[in-house]
Specification:
98 residues; alpha+beta; four-stranded mixed beta sheet; 3 helices; 22% strand
Length: 98
Protein backbone atom coordinates (compact mmCIF):
# COMPACT_ATOMS: atom_id res chain seq x y z
CA UNK A 1 0.00 0.00 0.00
CA UNK A 2 1.49 3.30 -1.08
CA UNK A 3 0.78 6.18 1.30
CA UNK A 4 0.79 9.85 0.34
CA UNK A 5 2.78 12.44 2.29
CA UNK A 6 -0.45 13.73 3.83
CA UNK A 7 -1.37 10.27 5.06
CA UNK A 8 2.13 9.67 6.47
CA UNK A 9 2.01 13.02 8.27
CA UNK A 10 -1.36 12.06 9.78
CA UNK A 11 0.00 8.67 10.93
CA UNK A 12 3.14 10.29 12.40
CA UNK A 13 0.88 12.50 14.49
CA UNK A 14 -1.11 9.49 15.71
CA UNK A 15 2.04 7.49 16.39
CA UNK A 16 3.70 10.23 18.43
CA UNK A 17 1.80 9.36 21.61
CA UNK A 18 2.12 5.57 21.30
CA UNK A 19 4.31 3.49 23.56
CA UNK A 20 6.47 0.79 21.96
CA UNK A 21 4.64 -2.53 21.88
CA UNK A 22 7.61 -4.63 20.72
CA UNK A 23 11.26 -4.41 21.72
CA UNK A 24 13.99 -5.94 19.58
CA UNK A 25 16.92 -6.64 21.90
CA UNK A 26 20.32 -8.25 21.85
CA UNK A 27 19.03 -11.50 20.35
CA UNK A 28 17.80 -9.73 17.22
CA UNK A 29 14.79 -10.67 15.13
CA UNK A 30 13.70 -14.10 16.25
CA UNK A 31 10.61 -15.82 14.88
CA UNK A 32 8.74 -14.95 18.08
CA UNK A 33 9.57 -11.26 17.76
CA UNK A 34 8.38 -11.25 14.14
CA UNK A 35 5.18 -13.00 15.21
CA UNK A 36 4.58 -10.35 17.91
CA UNK A 37 5.12 -7.53 15.39
CA UNK A 38 2.77 -9.21 12.91
CA UNK A 39 0.05 -9.71 15.54
CA UNK A 40 0.42 -6.14 16.84
CA UNK A 41 0.09 -4.75 13.29
CA UNK A 42 -3.00 -6.88 12.72
CA UNK A 43 -4.58 -5.71 15.98
CA UNK A 44 -3.59 -2.04 16.03
CA UNK A 45 -2.50 -1.16 12.46
CA UNK A 46 -0.12 1.52 13.79
CA UNK A 47 2.60 0.47 16.23
CA UNK A 48 5.91 1.57 17.67
CA UNK A 49 8.88 -0.80 17.77
CA UNK A 50 12.06 -0.15 19.71
CA UNK A 51 15.28 -1.61 18.34
CA UNK A 52 18.23 -1.64 20.75
CA UNK A 53 21.18 -1.89 18.34
CA UNK A 54 23.72 0.26 16.52
CA UNK A 55 22.68 2.38 13.54
CA UNK A 56 23.65 -0.02 10.72
CA UNK A 57 22.00 -2.98 12.45
CA UNK A 58 18.85 -0.91 13.08
CA UNK A 59 18.61 0.01 9.40
CA UNK A 60 19.02 -3.61 8.31
CA UNK A 61 16.44 -4.80 10.85
CA UNK A 62 14.01 -2.08 9.78
CA UNK A 63 14.17 -3.17 6.16
CA UNK A 64 13.77 -6.83 7.18
CA UNK A 65 10.76 -6.09 9.40
CA UNK A 66 9.02 -4.06 6.69
CA UNK A 67 9.63 -6.73 4.04
CA UNK A 68 8.53 -9.68 6.18
CA UNK A 69 5.41 -8.03 7.60
CA UNK A 70 4.47 -6.00 4.50
CA UNK A 71 4.35 -2.91 6.73
CA UNK A 72 4.98 0.67 5.74
CA UNK A 73 7.70 2.57 7.61
CA UNK A 74 6.12 5.83 8.77
CA UNK A 75 8.96 7.21 10.86
CA UNK A 76 12.34 6.14 12.24
CA UNK A 77 13.94 8.30 14.90
CA UNK A 78 16.84 6.84 16.85
CA UNK A 79 15.81 3.46 18.21
CA UNK A 80 12.08 3.97 17.56
CA UNK A 81 10.15 2.90 14.47
CA UNK A 82 6.56 3.70 13.67
CA UNK A 83 5.03 1.08 11.39
CA UNK A 84 1.65 0.91 9.67
CA UNK A 85 -0.19 -1.92 7.96
CA UNK A 86 -3.87 -1.73 7.06
CA UNK A 87 -6.03 -4.48 8.58
CA UNK A 88 -7.81 -6.08 5.60
CA UNK A 89 -10.76 -7.30 7.70
CA UNK A 90 -11.51 -4.36 9.98
CA UNK A 91 -9.68 -1.10 9.18
CA UNK A 92 -9.32 0.88 12.43
CA UNK A 93 -7.58 4.08 11.35
CA UNK A 94 -9.27 6.50 8.99
CA UNK A 95 -6.72 7.92 6.60
CA UNK A 96 -7.16 11.33 4.97
CA UNK A 97 -7.64 11.26 1.21
CA UNK A 98 -4.48 11.34 -0.86
Amino acid sequence: MQLSDTQKRHLRGLGHHLKPVVWVGQHGLSDNVMLEIDQALYSHELIKVKIAADRNTRQALTVEICEKTDAELIQAIGQMLVLFRRNPDKPRIALPSA
